[in-house]
Specification:
Blueprint (H helix, E strand, L loop, with lengths): L1 H30 L5 H5 L3 H17 L4 H6 L12 H10 L1
Helix pairs in contact: 1-3
Length: 94
């Protein structure tokens, strides 16, 4: 039972760390909008959500998140959660 408890604790710590890192990334993505506030005012309301999403995507791609992608899976296997289009292209080439 002791081994099971330590495994559960290790998994909980890993998940807590992952949540912390993902929260930091989210804050950075939201902050990436600040320099664009004036330009975002010129965008038609119908396209504002897409423009903000694009700004977040570009900011995300400027970060090295590869170690976090493998951490996203509880068992540590590849977890292609960040860029499903890229992941689909890689699967098509395999």
């Amino acid at each position: 039972m002791k081994n099971g408890a330590s495994t559960a604790l290790a998994r909980q710590e890993k998940l807590s760390d992952l949540i912390k890192r993902l929260t930091e990334i989210r804050h950075a993505l939201v902050a990436s909008e600040k320099p664009l506030q004036e330009k975002l005012k010129d965008i038609h309301p119908s396209y504002l959500k897409s423009a903000r999403n694009l700004a977040h995507y570009i900011a995300l791609r400027h970060r090295d998140i590869r170690p976090r992608e493998s951490d996203a899976s509880p068992e540590g296997e590849d977890c292609e959660i960040i860029d499903p289009v890229e992941a689909g292209c890689r699967r098509g080439r395999a």
